[in-house]
Amino acid sequence: MRPIEGIFDSRDYPDLLIGLKDPDDAAVWRLDAERGLVVTTDFFTPVVDDPYDYGSIAAANSLSDVYAMGGQPFLALNVAALPVELPIEVNAEILRGGAEKAREAGVVIAGGHTIKDKEPKYGLVVIGFVHPEKMLTKGGLRPGDALVLTKPLGFGVTTTALKQEKAAAEDVAEVVEWMKQLNRKAGALAVEFDLRGGTDVTGFSLLGHAAEVAAASDVGLHFSAEKIPFVSCARKYAGMGTFPGGAADNRMYYGPQVRLAAGIDEEMEMLLFDPQTSGGLLLGVPPEKLAAFLRRARQLKQPAWTVGEAVPGEGIDVLGS
Ligand code: CO
Ligand code: CO
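Above: inputs. Below: predicted complex with cobalt (II) ion.
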C-alpha cells in the first residue's frame, strides 16, 4: 500500500528527477544541468549490542543510498529516538559512532532532532550531489551487464542469532566490520566507470532488490549460486534458522518472481532472501568494462564479486552449479 500515492502529481515537479514515479534508493532534485541534489533518510533499531558500532552501522547504511545513486554525500542530520533509561554515555556513543562514520565519509552532521523513546532508533538524513545525467538507477541495467556485488551476504541471519543469544563473538565481529564499511569506494568506482544501473542491498535482500532492478530495467537477472559471497558464519546460522522475520516476508513477496535451480536448498534460498543492514552495492557493469572494473577494484582494495548477469527477459533465475 502506498498511502501518499496520488497526492503529488509528478508533472507539477519537473525538477524532481527521481522520487514519485519510479522510487529508487534516494530522491533526486535537479538544481541545474550539471547538479542534482540527492536526498535520503534511513533509521532503525539496534542491530548489535555495542552502541558505538550501532551508530556507525546506522550512519553507513544511511549514507549508502546516496552512493547507490552514484552521488557524493556532503551534509547530514541526525534522527534519533533514545531511551531516558539508558546511561547518557550509551546514547552519546551511538551519536559518536554515527558522527565519526560521517566524518570518514567526508560528510558533516549539522544538527538533527532527538526525541525520547523506549527503544532506541537512530539514523541520518543525508544530502549529496549527483550529475543528473550520470545517476545510478534501478532502471539502468542492460542485457549483457555483469552483476557485481560489493559485500557478502548473511548479515540478517547473524545479527538475529545475536539477538537470540546464539551468536559467537567472532561471527558478530565479522559482520559488524562489513556493516560498518562505507559503500563510498564502490560508489566512486561506479562513477569512475560511468555505470548507470545499480542499487544497494538492504532490507529486501539480494533477490528482492534484484527483482526491483529487473522490473525497473526491463531485463531478467541470472545469478550463479556458487558465485554469491557469504560471511563465513552464514551457513551455520542458516542451519540454526535464526532468520529475521523479514526473510520470510521477502520470500513471500518476491518469491513469485524468482526461479530457483533444483539444487538450491531451502537454507540457501532463505539466505538469498535474508534482509541486509548496510549491505553492499549491486552494480550492472557492461561486459566490455568488466575486466578493467575488477582490476581497479582490486587496486582500491574494494571487494567485488561477479555474481551473475542481466539477460533479455524478466524475473530472476538462480542457477546452480
Ligand atoms: Co537503497
Ligand atoms: Co534506503
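The chain has two domains: 10-130, 146-319.
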